[in-house]
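WARN no homologs supplied; continuing
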Amino acid sequence: MTVKIKKCNLDDLQILQEISIETFNDTFKDQNSPENMKAYLARAFNLKQLEKELSNPSSEFFFVYFHDEVAGYLKVNTNDAQSEEMGEELLEIERVYIKNKFHKHGLGKYLLNKAMETAMERNKKKIWLGVWEKNENAIAFYKKMGFVQTGTHSFYMGDEEQIDFIMTKILR
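OK structure emitted
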């Protein structure tokens, strides 16, 4: 199995947009209205928004490649880029998405390990993420990886408020 991780830059903007829309849509389209999905995808993954996120020095994106094909991506945030005020000792994992055809190859674990490595390089004490309360597979995966639920926050899918569990892991 050939797996590699590459940090994204502005040259990757188009690919980042494509994989962001594909993986988010595949993950959540069956549980949300088409109108709310369309509104969210247009707001979160338009090129201007992604360029802004890629240009933020407190955010980093990484692609994971499986046999030289982009299979998924990771977005991490520190400082003021975090989606919740969590303080300077924490790193947020905002997005971990793998294309459906690459599920069950351990790529999510590769990306989580990259997030932990990034956090330790920046002397962070904890990592955290938000996961939709109805995404049972993801919650089970994060628990297996050592995360515990430490709170909740609201996430808006179009005009619908949804609840995300905040899950945190202490780094050693």
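The two ends are 28 Å apart (CA to CA).
OK
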